[in-house]
Amino acid sequence: MSASKRPNFLFQNLASKIASIPMILTAVVIFVGCTLWTVAYSFTGSRLLPRWRWVGLDQYERLWETDRWMISINNLILYGVLMMLFSLALGFLLAALLDQKIRGENVFRTIFLYPYALSFVVTGLTWQWLLNPDFGVQKLVRDLGWSTFEFAPLTNNDWAIYGVLLAGLWQGSGLVMVLMLAGLRGIDQDVWKAARVDGISTWKTYIFIVLPMMRPIFVTAVVLVATGIIKIFDLIVAQTDGGPGLSTEVPAKYVYDMMFSSQNLGQGFAASTTMLLVVLVIIIPWSFYEFGGRRDAK
Amino acid sequence: MLMESVSIKNLDLNFGSVEVLKNLNLDVHQGEFIVLLGSSGCGKSTLLNCIAGLLDVSDGQIFINGNNVTWQEPSERGIGMVFQSYALYPQMTVEGNLSFGLRNAGVAKAEIQKKVARAAEILQIEALLKRKPSELSGGQRQRVAIGRALVRDVDVFLFDEPLSNLDAKLRTDLRVEIKRLHQQLKNTMIYVTHDQIEAMTLADRIAIMREGKIMQLASPAEIYGRPVNKYVADFIGSPAMNFLEGRVEKGAFHFAGGVLPLDQYNFSEGMDGDRDAWIGIRPEHVLVAETLAKADLTVSVRADIVEPMGADTLLWCEFGGQSFRIRLDGQFEIKEGDMIDIGFTSNAISLFDKSSEMRL
Amino acid sequence: MQNDMIGPRGPKPRSIFRLSNLVVYGTITILALYYLAPLYVMVVTSLKSMSEVRLGNVFALPVNLTFDPWFKAWSSACTGLKCEGLMGGFLNSVIITVPSVIVSIAIASVNGYALANWPYRGANIFFTILIFGAFVPYQLMLYPIVIILRELGVFGDLAGLVIVHSIFGMPILTLIFRNYFSSLPAELFKAARIDGAGFWGIFFKVMLPMSLPILVVAIILQVTGIWNDFLFGIVYTRPESYPMTVQLNNIVNSTYGEKEYNVNMAATIITGLVPLTIYFISGKLFVRGIAAGAVKG
């Protein structure tokens, strides 16, 4: 474009620019500005209130020496890996089953997806009840005869995180299923026919032919599940409140507690900045994969 | 008598309450190239899928090389299939695509290698074995798709509109490749298309289908020269045949354009009585200039629209009260508004009963 | 040799009980139990008296069906010091959700429209920032927003929450509106411009009337998301204005003395009723909403 006079350039398309002010403000002030603010203040000694007193990497050193933080990271990793594996597998399995042209497909899909419509609080409390040692699944099975049956993960330090996993999976797998189902429906039907003519059985076709064709969907699913895992907060607070002990502590809860209960803003900022780094590690490679270096997103 | 390669008896296929195929019978000879031709919805792809075993029939039987395969899975029928989109397995190499079926069946590695090599040689794709389908051209993909059937040593090849997705130039090239392949392999081939040019150039016999029934099953020449009904006559031939209403009476055809004596017309059995009828005249069978002398009926018409197409010129004029197409040689000099003499002989026309539309 | 209609003929006889069917239906039914069990347990527990709850296990059907727990949950369950049930929280949630949905959709639809039809230099950059922002954990922006809201004088007010929900709903909503408006025929827009209509004119007279399908999807997404929110509900509100989710958590997890499980379950169901109802009514649209939100870019 040829060089236009400065005033003209700014006033072109004015209505659109004015209308976009909320978006521009949000993007710049909130998403960029606030994030940078928090990162900047993570290098300060803020406690009850933010104070611009530079302490370098002090907060981070203390963070990584804090047992509670280390435990929450461990918990998140354990939960994250299992949640990722199981929700992908379960989501794909459900989608594959629904893809079989079964009777009542709509009913089943409704059943698998309704947990996704619920709040994490509702989910957490429901599963807290279900896993109750005195009244829940454990009692049911014991009533049926197996008197030594143990199934109360939420009372046990080592197993509590699995109780949370059950709940998280119950709620989150529906999303993966929807994605996978959309992907399956996008597969060229002729490939199915060709496999059948070649004599390949249905399950082998799914695993060796269809699954590799769904790589992009899997990548999307991984990114979505991963970002959900890192943010997990409501579920923990409702189901276990981090307990028993610290066995279900997670970084998001650590941040919240530091900021609003323990009056240690600096720690909270450092912890959340660390969370950001983890997210970047996932998002940046994915962006390159998805957008292949093109500058404009579609 | 040699056993038929593919034999279909009294085939019915219903989708819910819709009758897609009705009491269909078809015998395909060994090594024959048969084309199922028709417009969309006529049932040609459905029939092919039934032969392949991808669709369950509602009634009737299917035999391949004498074996009743009606209840057998596609992979047990001795058929190979090439799809419109080729449907190659996108994440496997060409070699993987060719060998997957055999590996799955537990065939020995050495045996697989032999078969793949042989197929690759016949199809001239040896250099492509390590490539993925996304790195192949349309023609190469077609050959790999055929190769998948070739490695399994099938008797019958099925083609489901393999050229429909391609542009005109590629279509012509690949069409020739298919014909060459048939001459080389001599397998039975059943080919589905809506394109009459593909049908005419490739087929030993064409089965023209309409609304689930086979209208006519004959060689291209027969279908062209003696179409069995008005639908077939209209379908084959480009530009399309001209149709005029009239009456057969006392050995001549009376219509708005005049009276045409029918001495040279070959009537079908018992169809030579007086009746109302259609006359069908192909644009290329209209006599002009030097050939006019042979005409049984000559008229003068005015050229309305002249469409020069290079090798031919298509002339639109008004004749018998309607728009009439005439094919002229490209060198013929004529312009809009000119009067031109045209003529007809009764051995180059077709007559169809007015109500039943069957050939007289 | 080929005989006349002897041998296999017609469709292949297939037993309903064949292995592939058993495996598929069997697996899917077992999995369905995993998904249905919690709902069943919630409902069943909420309809029992406490004595029944104590005696039996969570899966037993109520012998003496009672709706008492529901009434108690609604009007007299205790959250910390007050015992006024969920009703207050329900009203709060409604008061929070309705304006938030309206404002967030209003802003995002205009954003999407501007991006799709009136792109200006830098528009895509801001949009990209918006999308990436959707991946940033809320925790990073939590505290600065507290400060901003305090400066604006709306911290703890309804207005503050509406702003927060509009901010965080913007990325997904703008994306789906932008994609929707991009998919509409360009001729409509061009014709309107030739007729002399401007930015707002075209928006209200042409685009909005055609937006019903996507508006429904957006409403479903937002009502579900905002109603179910918990984090913003505890950070940006005062206790009087706690939404239902926060109150629910307080009822169940901070009762002193004996836990009234039946009341807790009733409270849980009541809280989940609004989004569940939307889900069951909207069916395929809900799925489309998720897919639209999930398939970013």
Order of helices and strands of chain A: HHHHHHHHHHHHHHH
Oligomer: heterotrimer
CATH topology of the largest domain in chain B: Rossmann fold
Under the CATH scheme, which architecture of chain A would be assigned? Orthogonal Bundle
Largest sheet of chain B: 6 strands, mixed
Approximate shape of chain B: elongated
Q: Kindly provide the name of the CATH class of chain A.
A: Mainly Alpha
Which protein chains make the most extensive interface, counting residues with beta carbons within 8 Å of the other chain's beta carbons? A-C, 97 and 95 residues
First-last Cα distance of chain B: 32 Å
Tell me the helix content of chain B.
Answer: 10-25%
Helical stretch tally of chain A: 15
Radius of gyration of chain A using CA atoms only: 24 Å
Q: What do we call the CATH homologous superfamily of chain A?
A: MetI-like
Mean pLDDT of chain B: 90
CATH architecture of the largest domain in chain B: 3-Layer(aba) Sandwich
Outline the biggest β-sheet of chain A: none
- Indicate the low-confidence ranges of chain B by residue numbers: none
Short description:
By secondary structure, chain B is α+β, with helices and mostly antiparallel strands. Chain B has helices at residues 44-52, 94-104, 109-123, 138-150, 168-185, 196-202, 220-225, 230-235, and strands at residues 6-15, 18-28, 33-37, 59-64, 67-68, 79-82, 156-160, 188-193, 205-210, 213-218, 242-249, 252-255, 258-261, 275-281, 287-288, 297-308, 312-319, 322-329, 339-344, 349-353.
Q: If you had to describe this structure to a student in words, what would you say it looks like?
A:
The complex is a heterotrimer of chains A (298), B (360) and C (297). Chain A has helices at residues 6-11, 14-19, 21-41, 58-65, 67-98, 105-113, 120-130, 137-143, 160-185, 189-197, 202-213, 215-230, 234-239, 251-260, 265-291. By secondary structure, chain A is mainly α. Chain A has one domain (62-291): Orthogonal Bundle (MetI-like fold), CATH 1.10.3720. Chain B is an alpha+beta fold and 360 residues long. Chain B has 2 domains: 6-234, Rossmann fold, CATH 3.40.50.300; 239-353, OB fold (Dihydrolipoamide Acetyltransferase, E2P). Chain B contains 8 helices and 20 strands. Chain B has helices at 44-52, 94-104, 109-123, 138-150, 168-185, 196-202, 220-225, 230-235, and strands at 6-15, 18-28, 33-37, 59-64, 67-68, 79-82, 156-160, 188-193, 205-210, 213-218, 242-249, 252-255, 258-261, 275-281, 287-288, 297-308, 312-319, 322-329, 339-344, 349-353. Chain B has a 6-stranded mixed sheet with strand order 6-7-8-3-9-10, with helices on both faces. In chain B, strands 13-12-11-14-20 form a 5-stranded antiparallel sheet. In chain B, strands 15-19-16-17-18 form a 5-stranded antiparallel sheet, with no helix packed on it. In chain B, strand 4 and strand 5 form a beta hairpin. Chain B is elongated. Helix content of chain C is 70%, strand content 0%. Chain C contains 14 helices and no strands. In chain C, helix 1 crosses helix 13 and helix 7 packs antiparallel against helix 10 (212-228). The longest helix of chain C has 31 residues, at 87-117. The mean pLDDT of chain C is 85. Chains in contact: A-B, A-C, B-C.
